[in-house]
Structure formats: C-alpha cells, structure tokens
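Changelog note: in this version the structure field was regenerated for every chain. One regenerated record is shown below for reference.
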Amino acid sequence: MTIKLKGGPELLRLLDELPKNLERNVIRGGLRAGAKVIQQQAKANVPVRTGKLKTAIGIGTRVEGSKLSSYVKLRGTGSYVGLFIEYGVAPHLISVSDADKPVRETRRGPRAVSIGTINKMVKRGSLKIGENFVGSVVMHPGHSAKPFLRPALDQKAEEAVGAMGAYIAHRVQIGDLKAPKLEIDDE
C-alpha cells in the first residue's frame, strides 16, 4: 500500500537540518507509533480462542540502506496459526502415513517417542489427537478465512499516519523549528 503525504517535503527539509542519528531515531519512533495503531486494531480484529495469536502480533522497524520501514508481524508462540486464520484452510485428508515421527513433551523438553509406542500406534493404525486415537484417516473440514491483519491496515491507515506525524511533531521542536503536520493526500 502506498500513501502520499501532505507535508512530506517540508518534513524532509526539516529533518535534513538535524543530525543524522537524531533524524533516523525520530523517523523510526514515528514509524513504530504508526505501526502500533495497526497492531492494536489487528489485536482487536483477531478471533480469540486461546489468546496466543493475539499476543503473537508484534511490531518492528527495518533499515535497508537509507530506507526505513515499519511492519506488523506475527512472531513467537502461536504465530503459525495466524496464516491459517487469515487465509483459511481448504478441506483435506490427514493419514497415518503423513504423520511425522511422534514427539512427546517431557520435563527436559520435546523427545522422540520410543519405537515401542510407535509400533503400538501403527498396530492400532490410528492417528492420535490429544490423548485419543481417532483412526487411520481423518477428514479435516477446513475453515473459511477470517482476515484480521489486512483489514487492520485498511481500517487504520489514516490514523497510523496521524500517529506518526504527531510523534515526529512532538519530538522535533527545537526553537523555531517545528515539524509540519502530516496528512494523507487524497489526490
């Protein structure tokens, strides 16, 4: 998504008058302030079941040469579920032959299940979900998409730009120098 700003050239001229490290830190802080708005909306949009996905929504900034950017990203525990919820899952079969070697949680961390336990599972010819054996083939019904990240950006883009501008304006007030107000250019 590309957003044109009113006040952008004036802001760039002002930032050129500041030391480079201050300029970079102010812009980076402004980008984080804008990303925080999107992050909060994404957390409000996410369908809550356990809350792990909500806590996995994070923000960050990135520097590539002279280009600074910010992002809202899924990371940490529960983040892998986000793509399935955002884009949905088609119905599919899960079979015993597709199952990876089972792993059991122990007090020392995840450990491979013993050959004896695997043999028992194969003899039974069954997949195990939780503590229940459910059969050799299971039909996963899939589920429809419940987007929460992209709608957050669509809903709060203007507010994010405003938060970024407010942060920069608050941080850059040195004597007569004041940051211009940033707004989205609708043209």
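Spot check on this record: Residues 20-45 form the longest helix (26 residues). The first strand starts at residue 5 and ends at 6.
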